[in-house]
Amino acid sequence: MSKYTDKRESFWKENFSRALPYETYVTGSSFEGKWRAFQSETSSLKVPSVLQTMTRKMPVLVLSGIWCGDCSRQGPLLNKIQEANSLFEFRFAESSEFLELKEELKINGAEKVPVIVALNEDFHEVARFGDRHLSVYRDKLSTELGAACDAGILPPEISALQEEFQEWVDFFERLQIMLRLAPGLRKRHRD
Question: At a CB cut-off of 8 Å and minimum separation 6, what does 63 contact?
Answer without folding.
Answer: 93, 95, 98, 101, 102, 105, 113, 114, 115, 116, 117, 130
